[in-house]
Amino acid sequence: MAELTNFRAEVQQASSDADREVSALIARVGARVRRARDRQGIPRRVLSEKSGVSPRYLAQLEAGEGNISIGLLQRVADALGLKIDWLVGEDDPWSSEALRVADLFRTVDTATQARVLAMLCPGPTEVARARRVCLIGLRGAGKSTLGRRAGAALAVPFIELNREIEAQSGMPVGELMALYGQEGYRRLEAEAIDRVVATHERVILAVAGGIVSEPETYNDLLSRFHTVWVKATPAEHMARVRDQGDTRPMAGNPEAMEQLKSILTAREALYERALAKLDTSGCSEDDSLKELLALIRRNHFLD
Q1: Is 173:165 a contact under the CB 8 Å cutoff?
Q2: Separation of alpha carbons 26 and 199, rounded Å
Q3: Which of 41, 232, 18, 238 is nearest to 142 (CA)?
Q4: DSSP one-letter code for 250
Q5: Which domains, ranges and CATH numbers included, belong to the chain?
Q6: Cα of 22 vs its chain's centroid, Å
Q7: What distance in Å separates the CA atoms of residue 96 and residue 61, rounded to the nearest whole number?
Q8: Average pLDDT for residues 124-146, to the nearest whole number?
Q9: How far is CA 275 from the centre of its chain?
């Protein structure tokens, strides 16, 4: 009888220890999600939209109260640009040397970044990127206009990825999105990038602003193109889109500017992964073009 009592006590103790470990894990994951979101300046609402996890669930998770599934946690990790093991591992990822190096890498100039990348992966990356340049950033930054003019000035083909997808499918982007949805369209983007790489060793490509939210496609883009983030202020993004005759961003939406700012904030860390930046804020088209051409030549992207 005494042995049975002792056995039950041991089982209860083991169960209690396991519960504490699970609670500690949930609290650790929640704290790291909150810290990663704060570091990137991403509002919870924006993280919810990117990950597909409800704001209420995210709030519970960050408070250490949400017993989130592995599948949903993977979505959150992808939306934050993190590996899932950074959220669940026992070691604090923000104290690791790798993260410190990553933070330092983002603060140095483009030439230094290029030298570091060449030292870390000297052969394959440069070969994979060939002489291909890709312009990333939100609508209204000037990617298409500058890319087209730069291609003409440098005698390099210019491709706009959305137009490539439309030509291949025979349907406009709007219809493709309605037919396949966001996820399906992302697959078409990945396939189009493969076609561009297979047919062009020297090219300037412009892609849609949201492509950076698809981790696998974006990583592929970064490894196979010399990427340039074309950026501008939120007000200029909005004004340029309107000047193109597109009034949809403002139509019946008084919060459009705030939403645009939220998108910029949410994607900033992703855009920062580009090899180079071109700020078109307050610049004329001709001046921005001169700077883009100088940037391409200075970094030997097409040599």
Answers
A1: yes
A2: 48
A3: 232
A4: T
A5: 2-97 (1.10.260.40), 108-298 (3.40.50.300)
A6: 31
A7: 23
A8: 85
A9: 13
